[in-house]
Amino acid sequence: MSAWNYYDLAEDQLKAFTRSAVRTKIMLCLKGRRMTAGELEREMNIRASTILHSMKDLIDTGLVNKKDARYSLTNIGKIQTILLDELVAAIVLLDQHADYWQSHDLSGIPEHLLAKMGMLARSQRVTSDPASPLKSLDNFMQELSRAKNIRGVSSFIAPGFPEIIKGCVERGANVELILTDSILNVVSKEYFDLINGLRAANNFHLYRLDKNINIGFTITEHLLALGLWRLDGTIDLAGGELICIGEDATLWGEELFNYYKEISQLV
């Protein structure tokens, strides 16, 4: 059954989220915690009487429990709050970077990870200053030169990237790269000696992707650098990437890397 067919079954719950901001904020505040009304009042900066009014509705609908003056989410409340948290975070991310998402090709991100885009909102995001568009790229290259673990997927070649990767491998960093067939062919010809030297190293693994994709990204232990092709088919190497710093961003990036690794072949 398609979502539009069973929307009516969920309509009341969905309207409840948007009808009462206090109700929704209580659920998000209780995620993973047990709290008293006073603690919720101080954290949410909302009067206890207002909180208790919404709390009664949450208890009556089976989303919140009360025990020893403390409130916590029920099993159903936990599941709904996890989904709500992802939705709110994703909306914030899309709104803050609306121009980026509207002007770039998202086909390289599988649907199950589009649904987890909120993970990127819970990270520090770095964008380029129009006055110095290469600044974020320079910062990324510096981070790459210090990283101990590097994973990447590429459908294009960034200036200086092969040499940076060579330096990372030589200093002992663990590197896994997935290249599309077309890029691998180019790199193998233009950087023949470099690639052969890397392949001899135990801490370097190269994979071939027999598929054209409009995405490139790199993950280190600290950040995710995500680059998408524009809808007009061009690539913006001068600050066109979205750099996200934090555990949630790197976990999202690792899942995206593993998605491509499963459909790639070791060279």
Give an account of the 3D structure.
The chain is an alpha+beta fold and 267 residues long. It has two domains: 3-86, Winged helix-like DNA-binding domain superfamily/Winged helix DNA-binding domain (Arc Repressor Mutant, subunit A, Orthogonal Bundle); 98-266, Endonuclease Chain A (Endonuclease, Chain A), CATH 3.30.870. The protein has helices at residues 3-19, 21-29, 37-44, 48-60, 75-96, 98-103, 111-114, 118-121, 135-146, 161-170, 181-190, 192-199, 247-261; strands spanning 64-67, 70-73, 124-126, 149-154, 174-180, 204-209, 215-219, 223-228, 242-245, 265-266. The chain has an eight-stranded mixed sheet, sandwiched between helices. Helix 10 (161-170) links the parallel strand 4 (149-154) and strand 5 (174-180). Helix 9 runs parallel beside helix 10 (161-170) and helix 11 packs across helix 12 (192-199). The longest helix is centred in the N-terminal third of the chain and has 22 residues, at 75-96. The chain is elongated and about 70 Å long. The mean pLDDT is 87.
